[in-house]
Task: inverse folding
């Protein structure tokens, strides 16, 4: 399973490409249990992404399944009422900071490293994006 990195973009928006990959992988049934459990979770990056743009997970999942290509999904995304250059820009600034001190889920980052991202125990990182990047590096 290969997911795009958290900072990779679709429609100039970070996390959109990765979340799209996660939905597609889950539909193909080759998605690890831990990823399936966290997919669309309101307490993870997916939940922050969806709330930021005023989307439900069901809406997003259906759009991914119906659009088939990244170009079509980008068009769908850009046509959503909560999506505009300003909300994309503010998300791109906010999302990479999730888990850092003073930002949401900083406590969660310390908790999940013991169960989900053990590489960050020996080599601490500052954000969830960094934690994912470190864990999935070859």
Result:
């Amino acid at each position: 399973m290969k997911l795009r990195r958290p900072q990779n973009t679709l429609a100039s928006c970070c996390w959109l490409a990765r979340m799209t990959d996660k939905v597609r992988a889950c539909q193909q049934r080759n998605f690890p249990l831990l990823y399936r459990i966290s997919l669309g979770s309101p307490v993870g990056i997916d939940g922050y992404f969806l709330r930021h743009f005023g989307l439900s997970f069901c809406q997003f999942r259906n759009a991914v399944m119906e659009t088939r290509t990244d170009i079509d999904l980008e068009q769908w995304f850009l046509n959503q009422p909560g999506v505009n250059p300003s909300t994309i820009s503010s998300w791109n600034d906010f999302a990479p900071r999730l888990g850092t001190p003073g930002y949401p889920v900083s406590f969660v980052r310390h908790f999940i490293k013991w169960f989900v991202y053990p590489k960050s125990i020996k080599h601490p990182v500052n954000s969830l994006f960094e934690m994912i990047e470190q864990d999935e590096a070859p």
Remarks:
- The two ends are 13 Å apart (CA to CA).
- The mean pLDDT is 93.
